[in-house]
Amino acid sequence: MTLNERLFHVGIIDEFDAAILSRDQETAIALLQRVELHKQEAVETVATIFKNPGKYGYTER
Known about the structure:
Blueprint: H1 3-9, H2 13-21, H3 25-34, H4 39-51
Helix pairs in contact: 2-3, 3-4
């Protein structure tokens, strides 16, 4: 299952998207940990998205 599928499956994809768009690193990491990513994986994933959000479908408001 992809990361997005996991987030959708547990019903937190909108929360994750909001955390990314508001650049709330702590919340984004916590949400990824809820879908069984290890802390370090979650930190790296969020950092990667923050470096180039457009690449992952996130646009500035």
